[in-house]
Amino acid sequence: MKKKIALFLSFAMLCTLCLCLSGCGGEAKQVVNVYNWGEYIDESIFDEFEEETGIQVNYSTFETNEALYSTLKSGGSSYDVIIPSDYMISRMIQEGMLEELNFDNIPNAKQVDLSQFNVKSEALAYDAENKYSVPYAWGSVGIIYNTKKVAGPVDGWGALFDKANKGQVLMFNNSRDALGLTLKYLGYSLNTTDEAQIKEATDLLIQQKEDGIVQAYVMDQIFEKLISGEAAIGPYYAGDAITMIEENPDLAFCSPKEGTNLFLDAMCIPKGAENKENGEAFINFMCKPEIMVKNADVTGYCVPSKAAYALLDDETKQNPIAYPSEEAMANMEVFTNLPEHILALYDSEWSRLTTAKAG
Q1: DSSP letters of 154-205?
Q2: Cβ contact 236:222 at 8 Å
Q3: Of 223, 226, 240, whose CA–CA distance to 296 is shortest?
Q4: Dist. CA 30–CA 35, nearest whole Å
Q5: Minimal CA–CA distance to 133: which of 86, 176, 94?
Q6: How far apart are CA 19 and CA 27, in angstroms?
Q7: What phi, psi does 227 have (nearest 5°)?
């Protein structure tokens, strides 16, 4: 009798488990885990994607390429799609951290074409064989400032180091962007491997901090601080500048005369992703021209597609913040992956800056 009861209970538990997994008669819910920058997608498209594919999007965000890298390197999280920037993709390919994409599952990747936008060919060198990534969006870095609060004209990186703007300046809270703009201000390359130049840039950032010019080191917090008028000036990405200017018309954007960073972010699948095919389905969906445009309307960033660009309204196409002129693009430089000993120097110099006392 006990044996029959045990068999019955085992059968009942098995049925319950099957029902849980099947969702009351259907298959287990398909998911895709997406990891992206903050303020960098139109989340309403997730419902469209799920309706079209039956795959639910689990979405989370990071603030910097370096934070993304650390999360993946630690192995503590599982993602199916990530959206790093060019130089970080190069590093991840080099370190074997990305899956090769099956482009049979991404036919819409053929819609991606940057040739119309004066994007330099070296901007695509991060994935020279086009095996690991599909472009998501591109743009440039510049200075966003409050025209009612900033002293003097803003035409270059020097405005961020001007004592007249003391206590009103925001700076990037990541080493590559903060040191990069400082290197450009000093007349050097974003990608210098000259240790003396990198240390000189750090020294200038420390002086800026000690003089009390910097109010805070931020990433997405820049939205609230500049829109509200809590701070007056800071460097950030052009797409976000468009969004902020819409919220506060006193804000303006400057592409610095010394030159700046042209960046390209792309969709990739991390090594060992649990739902690789679902990730490829998501990438394929994001490559639809109409979805690119819908996304760009919310984020302000540039579409990587001729077909999508053709769908944009004239005001957007003619906005020099979103789509810079050929002349402006010629003065932009793409970040590249740096040698390991220089990356270690960046880490130590960033630590030297963050531990320096503020004025």
Answers
A1: --SGGGGG-GGGTT-EEEESSHHHHHHHHHHHTT--TT---HHHHHHHHHHH
A2: yes
A3: 240
A4: 17
A5: 86
A6: 9
A7: -65, -40
DSSP 9-60: HHHHHHHHHHHHHHTTTSPPPEEEEEEEETT-S-TTHHHHHHHHHSEEEEEE
Q: Which residues pair with 59 in a beta bridge?
A: 34
Domains of the chain, first to last: 26-139+263-321 (3.40.190.10), 140-261+335-354 (3.40.190.10)
Question: Per residue in 182-241, pLDDT tens?
Answer: 999 999 999 999 999 999 999 999 999 999 999 999 999 999 999 999 999 999 999 999
Half-sphere exposure of 193 (CA within 13 A, CB side): 8
Q: Which helix (H) or strand (E) holds 311?
A: helix 306-311
pLDDT of residue 312: 96
- Supply the pTM of this predicted model: 0.90
With beta carbons less than 8 A apart as the criterion, state whether 265 and 85 touch: yes
Distance CA 238, CA 140 (A): 6
Scanning the structure block, which residue is given the tokens 């390919």? Answer: 93
* C-alpha–C-alpha distance, residues 241 and 253, integer Å: 7
Read off the pLDDT of residues 5-27 as tens digits, 9 standing for 90 and up.
Answer: 333 334 444 344 343 444 444 56
